[in-house]
Amino acid sequence: MIAVISDPSEGVSVIGKRLEKLQVPYIETCDPDQIRHASGIILSCSGNFGQKMRFLSQHQLTHVIKEEAIKGKPLLGINLGMQLLFTSSDEDGYHQGLNLLAGHVQPYKGKDYDIHLGWHRLRFTQMDPLTWGLEEQEVYFAHRFAVQVANPEDLLGRTDGDPPVVAIVGRNNIYGIQFCVEKSGSLGLKLLQRFVHQCKLRMDV
Predict the structure, then answer these.
(1) Of 53, 55, 163, 179, which is least packed with CB atoms within 10 Å of its CB?
(2) In CATH, which of 3.40.190.10, 3.40.50.20, 2.40.50.180, 3.40.50.880 is domain 2-204?
(3) pLDDT tens digits, residue range 104-126?
């Protein structure tokens, strides 16, 4: 069972619908005990960095997520969820993140726009069990803030735009995907499948 950390105010999770398509058991929850008993954790959310960190803190989830990730439980952050994995953010003031990966989130500054929106080519920067053998394709982004990774070895994929945007990160059992998995066609679904597979492997150990 995979725990999809859910804010009830956001309604039904689109990631939950994708897991249903893959016939993967999951539960949408903000209950610490259910997260502790899950085979893996998906943190998929949208909105404001500071607000989501307050939500996690109010539900006693900050410590639980960090504790389970440090134990080796697979963790996947999607969209804003990926940004929350990092040290800090400048979105609406300075905020501390989960600090599971080193780096800072700052406003996206494109050549023409201050929003990174639409289809962009994904380039893998190094191979990992999450990405091995997958074909580079265009994926769909919709965000105003972007991650600056502190450790280059945590970068698994980026766009080839100007400027390039961090698209996939990973270190051991901790992963993040910036683009919209549910809108990114077969590649988005395959990445989700790979994460689910890692959750199953850990349960079999």
Answers:
(1) 163
(2) 3.40.50.880
(3) 999 998 766 778 888 999 999 99
